[in-house]
Amino acid sequence: MNRATQATETVSQRILVTGGAGFLGANLCARLLEADHEVICVDNFYSGRKSNVADLQVSSNFELIRHDVTFPLYVEVDEIYNLACPASPPFYQSDPVQTTKTNVHGAINMLGLAKRLNARILQASTSEVYGDPEQHPQREDYWGRVNPNGIRACYDEGKRCAETLMFDYRRQHGLEIKVARIFNTYGPGMHPNDGRVISNFVVQALLNDPLTIYGDGEQTRSFCYVDDLVGGLLKLMHETPPEFPGPVNIGNPDEWSVNDLAKLVLDLTGSSSTISYGPAPADDPVQRNPDIGLAQTVMQWQPETDLKTGLRKTIDYFESELRIGSQTTLLRSVGRRS
Ligand code: NAD
Ligand code: UDP
């Protein structure tokens, strides 16, 4: 058993989760609390919601701080998960300068904090570092094909720079880092109006509104259920040795076209929605599928939830969100892109 595993299995730690009120962050905070850790959740609520962590606030081990990671943060913690950054294209493209700042200044601030505390830090990186890839499936040693000045660049290049900073802090300051390249993840906790494909399709289907396909729908993605993804982050942080920094792909290699995803959502919801086709967004990657060989070898990790099973749970979640009457007005604008 390595030092990290031993520490987390026997000792409760104080753990900082930035972006902790977002979709992945809230699910991660819940799992860390279940494992008896103390959690400090930091968020500026740009794309996250207090309601995502409302049930966690009953725990005396949970603390919520409103803070923007582009400004320095002074807390005392043992570990840092740096998740702060809107992940949905409509959200990250609506304030692109802030997106770059969140990725770059945010990473510098969290790495500075980690250096002062000698704390291990995990960066939520992304499959977007591969851009619109020529290699398929994508392996970690592929350097990617990113448009540096397109509308996705604030996110893609911001995340690439955050990776650079992580590895430079490791080389220059000996920091223990973990870089997770997360592929499309879905599940309970997503904002109904988030704008990503699964939340859009499920909510549209439940409202019997047309499903909005951008482009011809033949572009592919590989969708990972949130519980699997969070399990992967925990394994990377706690069960890999200090000499393994990543980057490591964490995602589900089961690849779907957007057209087939739409059909599956209609099938599982029994919806009478039609399908509407609109223009493809600029620089929309044509295909995406993780090679997870490294995660399987180093972390003994692979996803366990197939898309149908995960979608059923996600549909249940959005059904209950829709039952909350006050959100109906909000939900009517689903599918809009900024
Ligand atoms: P999300 O938008 O639901 O959550 C991001 C959270 O970060 C939100 O709560 C938001 O308010 C907060 N935030 C944004 N800017 C901030 C700032 N400057 N200071 C403090 N908080 C800030 O997105 P998510 O899906 O939970 O993604 C979490 C992380 O995982 C992100 O870094 C994202 O890039 C990465 N990721 C997610 C996916 C995915 O499919 N969900 C895929 C690849 C990478
Ligand atoms: N997409 C779509 N309809 C939607 C939302 C997204 O056809 O209502 C497409 C989008 O153009 C992309 C894919 O679905 O090709 C995945 O989009 P998402 O925003 O979920 O994630 P990302 O593009 O960042 O992988």
Tags for this model:
single chain; 338 residues; alpha/beta; Rossmann fold; UDP-galactose 4-epimerase, domain 1; 16% strand; globular; disordered C terminus; binds nicotinamide-adenine-dinucleotide; binds uridine-5'-diphosphate
What would your notes on this structure say?
This protein has 338 residues and is an alpha/beta fold. The chain starts with a helix and ends in a 7-residue tail after the last helix. Helix 2 (23-34) crosses helix 7 (226-239) and helix 6 runs parallel beside helix 8. It has eleven helices and 13 strands. The strands form four sheets. It has a seven-stranded parallel β-sheet with strand order 3-2-1-4-5-6-11, sandwiched between helices. Strands 7-10 form a two-stranded parallel ribbon. The protein is 39% helix and 16% strand. Bound molecules: nicotinamide-adenine-dinucleotide and uridine-5'-diphosphate (UDP). Residues 89, 184, 196-197, 200, 212-214, 219, 221, 258, 281, 284, 335 line the site of uridine-5'-diphosphate (UDP).
Distance between the termini: 49 Å
Indicate the CATH architecture of the largest domain.
3-Layer(aba) Sandwich
Number of helices: 11
Can you write the helix and strand succession as a string?
HEHEEEHHEHEEHEEEHEEHEHHH
| Apparent shape | globular
Mean pLDDT: 93
The percentage of residues in β strands lies in: 15-25%
Number of domains: 2
Structural category: alpha/beta
The CATH class of the largest domain turns out to be Alpha Beta
Q: Biggest sheet, open or closed, and with what strands and sense?
A: 7 strands, parallel
Instruction: Give the low-pLDDT segments.
Output: 1-10, 325-338
Which ligands are bound?
nicotinamide-adenine-dinucleotide, uridine-5'-diphosphate
Strand order of the largest sheet: 3-2-1-4-5-6-11
Question: Would you report the number of β strands?
Answer: 13
Q: How big is the Rg?
A: 19 Å
